Amino acid sequence: MIDTIFNFGAQHLGAFWPVVWSLIKIVALILPLLGCVAYYTLWERKAIGWSQIRPGPNRVGPAGLLQPIADAVKLIFKEIIVPSA
Length: 85
Hints:
With 85 residues, this protein is mostly helical. 67% of the residues lie in helices and 0% in strands. It is built from three helices and no strands.
């Protein structure tokens, strides 16, 4: 299957295909790692909440499982305000 994708890309993109193929491999490696880090952070926040006898992040989705996605969306759309001197 990978050979089929590689040959298809090489036929249609020509000399630009190695760059595209490298970017696809980088994204395929980085996205799962970022997901793991996001859910590790959720687990850490829940453990800290449990140790402090409070619920922890539990507002978004069932048992707070969508909290990392909500945090990422909030970070993407956060406005940077710099006060003028």
